[in-house]
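YM 10:42: Tetracycline repressor protein class E sequence, as discussed on the call
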Amino acid sequence: MMSPVAGKRDPSTEAVRTLRSLWRATPSVRPGPTSALSLDALVTTAIAIADTEGLAKLSIRRVATELGISPMSVYTHVATKAELLELMTDTAHGELADPGPVAERWQDRIAEIARTNLDLLIRHPWLVEQPPGRPPLGPGTTGKYERELTALDGLGLDDITLDAALSFVLGFVRGAARDRIAAQNTVADSETDEQWWAARAATLAELMPAEDYPLAVRVGSAAGAAQDAAWDPLAAFEFGLARVIDGLAPLLDQHGDR
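YM 10:58: structure's back
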């Protein structure tokens, strides 16, 4: 359905309108049917739909149906689905915007950034689909960025390196979250991992002689026994996080372990 306020798209105008909506700088209601619905309530509903059904199921009409209003009423708050998605992303990012206790060791601060971001992406799987290079420039995203930079500030890094170090950590987290979400979706749509392996074990043993693939059989068996699965997303994340911290250590240690 075409937005009744879209007309000919003007990217500059749309960007300004979206920014003002993100910061709640102007009344969100635009010409259209009168609605007592607040922008915050609309965004909260859209997030709930995306969390449970995915972005493919999210639309202005779907949000309107959930709220029991007409699509035209939704359009008095947001002009496009793209604008709604920016508002949703910024609101979700705002969950990590509030400053909290800061650990003394930089290693613990990086681990906290990584784990809280992983939890955020698991709560809102659709966030991994958003391009990191074009974040919504609202208070939620900005507050999250400020909090994470503060955790790494004072380590003697220049501004460019500070931003790069944070991006390195968040890039690792996005990859880990994407793999974990894919694994969860696979299990939800079919058999469990245990059932998948059990259905193939006997035939695989027949077709893949252990003497021809000694390392694959030995290492695979050891890893599977240790993790009770061929792949443990949590163990993989913790292993990778430790390596991320190890990788940053030479950079940060040269400025002192603060």
